[in-house]
Amino acid sequence: MQQLTGAGILGTGHYVPERVLTNADLENMVDTSDEWIRTRTGIEKRHLAADNEDTSDLASKAAQQAMDAAGISPEEIDFIIVATASPDYTVPSTACMVQQKLGCTKAGGIDLSAGCAGFVYAVSVGSQMVRTGMYKKVLVIGAEVLSRVVNWNDRNTCILFGDGAGAAVLGPVEEGYGFLGADMGVDGSLGNILSIPASGVAEPVTHRAIDSGRIYIHMEGSEVFKAAVRHMDSTTLRALEKADMTKEDIDLLIVHQANYRIIQATAKKLDIPADKLFINIEKYGNTSAASVGIALDEAVRSGRVHHGDRIVMTGFGAGLAWGSVVMRWM
Ligand code: UT7
Fold it and tell me: Does the beta carbon of 317 lie inside 6 Å of ligand 1?
């Protein structure tokens, strides 16, 4: 039996594709307005992958940045976890593509499906691999090319999502730092309010599914909205309790960037003031599993994160699935 060790983040990175789609561009595509999108979501623009860019390309670029920040080489990575709802293929996993693209010659790897809670789930799982001593360096990535699974004729969804990737290298840290508590939950009874109906064996991709648009994201927006606000503060409180902390201890709260109003509602329920809340949804839209990873990296690179800070990351999305992690920054 190996001794438990602290597990934390050694380096972060993110990547968004060059192409930008503004709200003004969307006004020419569907019946919407810049004003509606800004006031209902907080989004001003989003980035879209080029035709030759896949989820694994975005993931690899974010991961390379995270490895550079951690000062480690690809050969040192023991395991890769890619959280995504838009994998390169159903089989093989996107983690295998990333392994090959980065040259992580000694790594194992898996994909993880937890919708927009994906990055939080991936760091929860990866940190336990480090904590138990099973692995020393685990690469976790949230990456999406949602632009290829969005129906560009559906104004309910196409204005929301963007492409991007966020990554972190996890490794051993001094006990008392790194990941201190986590909470995860799912509710499959509400799986139908946010899904890609024809995307697996239950409803295979047929000509009929293509013609009826069931190969694209289906979302009952206001139901998802209500559930998000219902769950994100409670999962945060449970994770804090496991870390022996209270909401007053939070130095920085990173909420999944789904909608400005959801982020504000979650912060309000937790009494978190604006200066302890990280928001970048205006630039990227909802990048699903990538959003928390991108936000974390931007927070780190912009000097918002300091030694000893207590940081909470919380996510919510398709499943329904939600989760939070509490960490103390090295
Ligand atoms: O990442 C995790 C999963 N996703 C989320 O967390 C997203 C959660 N949901 C949301 O962010 C919001 O529900 C939306 C932004 C998607 C929609 O905002 P809403 O305030 O819940 O609007 P709604 O769906 O209740 O629609 C209100 C009205 C409707 O018109 P009527 O029926 O009142 O005449 C919609 O048809 O707004 C209309 N509408 C639009 N109008 C202009 C819906 N989409 C648009 C649009 N432009 N793009």
Answer: yes
Q: What is the maximal distance between C-alpha atoms in the chain?
A: 61
Structure confidence at residue 3 (pLDDT): 66
Locate the ligand 1 atom nearest the alpha carbon of residue 156 and give its number: 44
Please, which residues have CB within 8 angstroms of residue 232's CB and are 6 or more apart in sequence? 255, 256, 262, 266, 314, 315, 316, 322, 324
Protein residue with least CA distance to atom 30, ligand 1: 156
- Rounded distance from Cα 56 to ligand 1 centre (Å): 30
To the query of whether residue 280 is one of the catalytic residues in this protein, the response is no
- What's the token pair of residue 21? 């789609």
Q: What is the CA radius of gyration of the chain?
A: 19
> Is 218 a pocket residue for ligand 1 (Cβ < 6 Å)?
no
Whether 255 contacts 232, CB under 8 Å: yes
Phi, psi of 184 (to 5 degrees): -140, 145
The letter for the amino acid at 177 is: Y
Instruction: Point out the ligand 1 atom lying closest to the alpha carbon of residue 317.
Output: 2
Indicate whether 186 pLDDT > 70: yes
Q: Residue 222 Cα, ligand 1 centroid: separation in angstroms?
A: 6
* Across 8-18, average pLDDT: 98
- For residue 5, what pLDDT band results from cuts at 50, 70 and 90? confident
> How many beta carbons lie within 10 A of that of residue 192, not counting itself?
11
% of residues, the chain, pLDDT over 70: 99
286 carries an active-site annotation: yes
CB distance 259 to ligand 1 below 6 Å: yes
Q: pTM for the whole thing?
A: 0.96
Average pLDDT of the chain, as a whole number: 96
Domains of the chain and any CATH numbers: 6-176 (3.40.47.10), 179-328 (3.40.47.10)
Known catalytic residue: 158?
no
Is the pLDDT assigned to residue 161 strictly greater than 70?
Answer: yes
